[in-house]
Prior knowledge:
Blueprint: E1 20-26, H1 28-45, E2 50-51, H2 62-71, E3 73-80, H3 88-103, E4 108-114, H4 118-122, H5 127-138, H6 143-157, E5 162-165, E6 168-171
Parallel strand pairs: 1-2, 1-3, 3-4, 4-5
Antiparallel strand pairs: 5-6
Helix pairs in contact: 2-3, 3-6
Amino acid sequence: MVFLTNEGASSSSSTRQWKYDVFLSFRGEDTRAGFTTYLYKALEQKGINTFMDDKLPRGEEISTELLKTIEESMVLVIVFSKNYVESKWCLDELVKIIECREDDQMVLLRPIFYNVEPREVRNQLGNFGIALANHEKEFKDNMGKMQRWREALSKAASVSGSHYEEGYVSNG
């Protein structure tokens, strides 16, 4: 799992206690039944304590608990897929992920581009642009939220990550 390494991290990273090694952010309908579940199982088999949103205790408010879990995770993996940006929850989660990374340089950000091009995410092209235009109609009175979503997408997609395309994975 090369993409999980933190080359260049200072030795102070060992002093911080993390609840999870990895937090997986993904659009369930796109990747839960295949790619993300496979990734989760592979990480767990390697002894990497990984959070996937099916671990939330029943009855807890998902947003508060999930945001806290992001803060308690060392590696934040974002699986960008075709419909990721259609989910307002995924976008809010992404904003929190970027905030955590910017607030703590020990937090690692690892994007995976699942059958999408990094430039589509970074520049909000194709499905990403269409979905954001649809969100803008709903949030016309809250353009600050839209701006945070756009900035988070651009920042996350500017980080070197892994690109998965129809059975082929490339890192870089």
